[in-house]
DNA sequence: TCTGGGGTCCTAGGACCC
DNA sequence: TCTGGGGTCCTAGGACCC
């Protein structure tokens, strides 16, 4: 544990709304609500003027409109917020090389990494004041609130205590008593569900939490959550500030104005989402192995279907094809209000032309185009029955299973001979093949035409 | 006037392998 | 014919955050 309050948490005040007020002077001093402005929109950020009327983040825009009809309702302009955020983060990086952004409007700054040591509360007060001034100038007038302490938890909670435009430095050694009177929900990670469970055990404040022993806490909320909660509550939080955390998933989703039931329309929307996901993967120089399709039903129940490929891809056609199959497997009767497509199990993307010729030959993953699988077929591709297309020409499926299909080529020579195994993206191939090679050839004549 | 979009992390069960 | 653990990978769902 540190002995000086060298971790800052910087939080921009009502960020999206403040940017809109900065750019449109007529909105200054007036209630502004930024978020989804459609029928099913929710509030991202309300200006402080709008908060007086009870408008809050995550509230439906419909409710916000009834509470504050005279506010300005604006859709989000993420490109503008991103640019402003970068200017603000640059000010923090000028102060310390170790900055951990949590979102567009929040970051931790580690002053110890800037070579500053033995900082007093007054030192940190002064540093925070200077940083706020630098942020104000760099952002065109935005204010920030800053919290500081010996840990991330303390800094984060402190930044919330004097909003907007405040600075709170928690003196070293006072952390446990600082936390004790607060509700358990001040701890990030304790939401309604956890608060409810803790409350049934008689725990409402962090002080109550401090009285519990770790075993008891783990019984209440599970092992990972319990032990981390125990450490946080007792102010023994030694989590490091980490500057670049790697992306774990990329996804696109959309809530429709009215529930959709038309499979063809949903398939077309899914295709477009798959292409947008692929585009973002390429921009980030990433590729992924797991495709996930998310659906939200009319009654708000949410389902995901996912399929993991044998190798990573950023190919929009591959992602779209897998997404389409996953969507076909999803129940959409009664209509769905949301569709999403995402990619995870991400790996660093390697640009194709960086491969040398020999590396190409040894590339572990080769994909083949598989025929459309008939709706009623329960398992993957049928050996001796299905024809696939590859860079070596067309061939018969010889065997399949576990993300792989073995293909026998009649007309093309492949580097490995007439039989070659490919990785495929078909989720059904994770199940064993229905028939073994050589059997079930009675439809061979029907398939002949497909070979041309 | 119901409930966004982008994420992260955790859990639990089943398949599979040794 | 019955019966092991342990580890890893995958899938689905849920809690939570901004």
UniProtKB/TrEMBL annotation:
This is DNA polymerase IV. Transmembrane segments: none annotated. The keyword Methyltransferase does not apply. Residues 418-452 are annotated as: Disordered. The record marks 16 as: Substrate discrimination. It catalyses: DNA(n) + a 2'-deoxyribonucleoside 5'-triphosphate = DNA(n+1) + diphosphate. Keywords: Cytoplasm, DNA damage, DNA repair, DNA replication, DNA-binding, DNA-directed DNA polymerase, Magnesium, Metal-binding, Mutator protein, Nucleotidyltransferase, Transferase. Belongs to the DNA polymerase type-Y family. Coiled coil: none annotated. The lineage of its organism: Bacteria, Bacillati, Actinomycetota, Actinomycetes, Propionibacteriales. It comes from Kribbella sancticallisti. The keyword Magnesium applies.
């Amino acid at each position: 544990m540190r002995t000086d309050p060298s971790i800052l948490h910087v939080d921009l005040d009502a960020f999206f709304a403040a940017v809109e007020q900065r750019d449109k002077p007529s909105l200054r001093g007036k209630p502004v609500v930024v978020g989804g402005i459609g029928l099913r929109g929710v509030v991202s950020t309300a200006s402080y003027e709008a908060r007086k009327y009870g408008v809050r983040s995550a509230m439906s825009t419909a409710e916000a409109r009834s509470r504050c009809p005279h506010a300005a309702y604006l859709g989000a302009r993420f490109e503008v917020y991103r640019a402003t955020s970068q200017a603000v983060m640059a000010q923090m990086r000028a102060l310390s090389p170790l900055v951990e952004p949590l979102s567009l409007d929040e970051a931790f700054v580690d002053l110890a990494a800037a070579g500053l040591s033995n900082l007093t509360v007054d030192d940190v007060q002064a540093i925070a004041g200077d940083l706020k001034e630098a942020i104000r100038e760099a952002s065109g007038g935005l204010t920030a609130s800053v919290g500081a302490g010996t840990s991330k938890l303390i800094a984060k909670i402190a930044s919330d205590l004097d909003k907007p435009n405040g600075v709170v430095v928690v003196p070293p050694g006072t952390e446990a008593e600082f936390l004790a009177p607060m509700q358990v929900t001040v701890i990030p990670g304790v939401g309604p569900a956890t608060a409810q469970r803790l409350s049934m055990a008689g725990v409402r404040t962090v002080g109550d939490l401090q009285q519990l022993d770790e075993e008891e806490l783990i019984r209440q909320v599970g092992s990972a959550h319990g032990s981390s909660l125990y450490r946080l509550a007792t102010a023994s939080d030694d989590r490091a500030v980490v500057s670049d955390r790697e992306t774990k998933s990329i996804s696109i989703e959309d809530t429709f104005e009215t529930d959709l039931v038309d499979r063809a329309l949903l398939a077309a929307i899914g295709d477009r989402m798959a292409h947008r996901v692929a585009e973002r993967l390429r921009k980030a120089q990433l590729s992924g192995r797991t495709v996930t399709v998310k659906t939200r039903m009319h009654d708000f129940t949410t389902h995901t279907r996912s399929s993991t490929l044998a190798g990573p891809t950023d190919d929009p056609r591959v992602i779209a094809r897998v997404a389409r199959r996953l969507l076909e497997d999803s129940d959409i009767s009664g209509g769905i209000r949301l569709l999403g497509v995402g990619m995870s199990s991400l790996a660093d993307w390697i640009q194709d032309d960086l491969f040398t010729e020999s590396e190409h030959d040894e590339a572990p993953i080769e994909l083949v185009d598989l025929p459309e699988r008939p709706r009623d077929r329960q398992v993957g591709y049928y050996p001796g029955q299905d024809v696939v297309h590859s860079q070596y020409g067309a061939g018969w499926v010889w065997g399949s299973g576990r993300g792989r299909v073995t293909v026998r080529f009649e007309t093309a020579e492949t580097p490995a001979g007439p039989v070659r195994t490919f990785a495929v993206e078909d989720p059904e191939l994770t199940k064993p093949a229905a028939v073994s090679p050589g059997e079930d050839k009675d439809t061979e004549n029907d398939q002949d035409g497909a070979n041309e």
